[in-house]
Amino acid sequence: MEYRRLGRTGLKVSPLCMGCWRMGGDQTDEATSLQILQASLDAGINFIDTADVYTGGHSERIVAKVIEGRRSEVVLATKFRWRSAKGPNGEGASRKHILEACEASLRRLGTDYVDLYQIHGWDGGTPIEETMEALGDLVRSGKVRYIGCSNFSALQICRALWAADRAGTAKFVSVQPHYNLLERGAENELLPFCHEMGLGCINYSPLAGGLLTGKYRRGEEVPAGTRAAREERMRRRLDDRTYDRLERLEAYAREHGHTPTHLALAYLLAQPFVSSPIIGATSVAQLQESLGAVEWKMTAEEAARVREIAG
């Protein structure tokens, strides 16, 4: 597996990051989660992303079991921002919440440091200067190696970088946006800006919640157990326009000897601003399918054609 630098840092991460959003929850129990994470590490994935709110903190506890004895092999990322404790200060990006949330994550993860600590979303009620200075203190203390952000706009990132620069403290090295072949709005401003500023992209939902895997077929029942079977919002997306796009993309993938999943991930990996898309899996088989995407070294010309087909 060829490793990539995270943005302009010297940190090397696998081309796919293992996301732990549902690990330990109703869809992926602890035993299955442990199998998936172990298989990920064995396959060469060294980048794991979780958050303090994922499955009520259980996700971080599961990750702790897998990295025990292998901590130095893993680039471990977690996040804070949303409510993780009681009281008025149990959420947000204040100094108090950041320091307490970090300590709580370290306990659940069974480690004394996090490689990448990310703010999970903008907090308009806290001065960004306070947030960046608190994060900088964590970096200086050694409890955090790098910092990043998720669900920030280009303007919000710019404000954060400016605040950190003025304070002479640590700056964001990565951004975690919602980005995939069907939802490419981030390509207009956010990702070019981050690329210019040297921030690596570790985008989530690279398969559009499963829409880009080829499992949904026009005129057929929605497969049981899928997100569309559980969520009305996902079913509403399965209209004729979406099916037209999915069918064109699948045809292109098959012409090149690959699956729709490979196409969706290979397109992202061909973008200069993407460091490591965050994949999810509910089984080892799904993980193996995603891993096949790294074999497709999509050219710029192929990526442009895929973008055109996707509409």
The CATH superfamily appears as NADP-dependent oxidoreductase domain
- Shape summary: globular
Largest sheet: 8 strands, parallel
Total number of distinct structural domains: 1
Mind telling me the C-alpha Rg? Answer: 19 Å
Please provide the ordered H/E string of secondary-structure elements: EEEHEHEHEHEHEHEHHHHEHH
**How many separate helices?**
12
- The CATH topology name reads TIM Barrel
Overall pLDDT metric:
96
* Strand segment count: 10
What would CATH call the class? Alpha Beta
Strand content: 5-15%
Q: pLDDT under 50 segments (min length 5)?
A: none
Please report the distance between the alpha carbons of the first and last residues: 31 Å
- CATH architecture verdict: Alpha-Beta Barrel
Helix content: 40-55%
Give the structural class. Answer: alpha/beta
How do the strands line up in the largest sheet?
A: 9-8-7-6-5-4-3-10
Characterization of this structure:
- This protein is of the alpha/beta class and 311 residues long.
- The chain has an 8-stranded parallel β-sheet, covered by helices on one side. A two-stranded antiparallel ribbon has the order 1-2.
- Helix 4 (128-141) packs across helix 5.
- The chain has 12 helices and 10 strands.
- The relative contact order is 0.13.
- The protein has a single domain (4-216, 271-296), classed as TIM Barrel, CATH 3.20.20.
- The longest helix has 16 residues, at 240-255.
- Strand 6, helix 4 (128-141) and strand 7 form a beta-alpha-beta unit.
